[in-house]
Design goal:
Number of helices: 6
Distance between the termini: 22 Å
CATH superfamily: Winged helix-like DNA-binding domain superfamily/Winged helix DNA-binding domain
Largest sheet: 2 strands, antiparallel
Structural class: mainly alpha
């Protein structure tokens, strides 16, 4: 049986993710984990001020998992949890300057560390971005309409 090209594409992306995750985490001098980095990156890209439950939905993880990640980031001074002005019981996640600097350092490390690997692509990394971004957007839009199967 031949796998579909869509499955093959997603399989390759999954393998790439595993290899990249391992390389990223092994290369961080302070033990920054990829889930922690992705939260910092999300806050830089889309802005801070979201609640833990909103972040858990965005990352498709349970609230306890997100709470654990946020606790680790707060302990390191990369975020702070402010009271939600609209709901005294809630919190808002705010990126600190140290968090922004740590995210930026990780991005520089990725660029430096993986530049030699990228030469094997046969194209500039930017050339692959439109197709991957379109796939991500389609999956993101389909996220809430997906039914368990």
């Amino acid at each position: 049986m031949t796998d579909s090209s869509l499955f093959a594409l997603l399989n390759e992306i999954g393998i790439i993710e595993q290899l990249a995750r391992t390389r990223f985490e092994r290369g961080q001098p302070d033990g920054l984990r990829l889930p922690q980095f992705t939260v910092l990156n999300h806050l830089v890209r889309l802005g801070d001020g979201r609640g833990p439950a909103q972040l858990a939905r965005a990352f498709q993880v349970g609230k306890p998992t997100m709470t654990h990640t946020l606790q680790r980031l707060e302990e390191r001074g990369f975020i702070r949890l402010d009271p939600d002005p609209a709901d005294a019981r809630g919190k808002r996640v705010m990126l600190t300057e140290a968090g922004r600097a740590r995210r930026d350092a990780a991005v520089r490390w990725i660029n430096d560390d993986l530049a030699p690997v990228a030469t094997h692509l046969g194209m500039a990394p930017a050339a692959a971005l439109p197709a991957l971004a379109a796939l991500r957007e389609a999956l993101d839009q389909a996220r809430d309409s997906a039914t368990p199967g």
